[in-house]
């Protein structure tokens, strides 16, 4: 299998962490591409018509894309249990929360880096950060019991989302007012799979 990726993407990092946590990294060849909206490399477009990363090219089936599809496939392939077989709803909601933080945070970067300066909207950027802030507050106040439970895909999504905030939005100081989440993040970031995938 080939994983088409870019090292700065938090969605790619989520897949890389799953590959490491499930001992499947040696089964995948990493193909690094440079991509941006409106600038999709031909090999990525051939693999994924949407033109987004990550994309997992399989020898025995259709190419998979969207990190949630890829991680679920990898979990099933390894029988790792990152997606609970019964009552998966909290895990899936936690994964969706982590992914939503990533989406809003990536959108903020795109607004500043890719849109003409005269067209950039401070209000739009702050609206994206408000989404992030609400999600962080919810994680800190409602989800710590789950985060301190057995490892699942929700942990990985949230860990990668927080890592991306440190990488691209350090000046926002997401830890302020989120003490419990910050303490959990420090422990989770020390995992070997997270240390090996720091962008």
From TrEMBL:
- The species this protein belongs to is Pseudosulfitobacter pseudonitzschiae
Q: Which InterPro entries does the UniProt entry name for this protein? A: Glutathione-S-Trfase_C_sf, Glutathione_S-Trfase_N, GST_Omega/HSP26, Thioredoxin-like_sf
Output this protein's name: Putative GST-like protein YibF
Q: Which Pfam families match?
A: GST_C_2 (PF13410), GST_N_2 (PF13409)
Gene Ontology annotations for the cellular component aspect, listed alphabetically: cytoplasm
Using the record's annotation, list all stretches that form the GST N-terminal domain.
1-82
CDD domains reported for this sequence: GST_C_6, GST_N_3
Q: Which PANTHER family match?
A: GLUTATHIONE S-TRANSFERASE OMEGA, PTHR43968
């Amino acid at each position: 299998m080939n994983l088409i990726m870019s090292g700065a993407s938090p969605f790619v990092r989520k897949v890389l962490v799953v590959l490491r946590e499930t001992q499947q990294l040696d089964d995948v060849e990493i193909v690094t591409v440079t991509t941006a909206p409106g600038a999709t490399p031909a090999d990525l477009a051939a693999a994924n018509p949407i033109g987004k990363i990550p994309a997992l090219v399989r020898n025995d089936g259709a190419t998979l894309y969207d990190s949630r599809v890829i991680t679920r496939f990898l979990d099933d392939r390894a029988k790792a249990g990152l997606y609970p077989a019964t009552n998966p709803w909290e895990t899936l909601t936690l994964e969706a929360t982590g992914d939503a933080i990533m989406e809003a945070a990536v959108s903020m970067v795109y607004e500043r880096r890719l849109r003409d300066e005269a067209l950039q909207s401070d209000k739009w950027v702050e609206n994206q950060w408000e989404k992030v802030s609400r999600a962080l507050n919810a994680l800190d106040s409602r989800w710590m019991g789950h985060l301190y439970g057995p490892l699942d895909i929700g942990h990985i999504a949230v860990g990668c989302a927080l890592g991306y905030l440190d990488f691209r939005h350090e000046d926002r100081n997401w830890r302020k007012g989120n003490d419990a989440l910050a303490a959990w993040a420090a422990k989770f970031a020390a995992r070997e799979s997270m240390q090996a995938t720091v962008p």
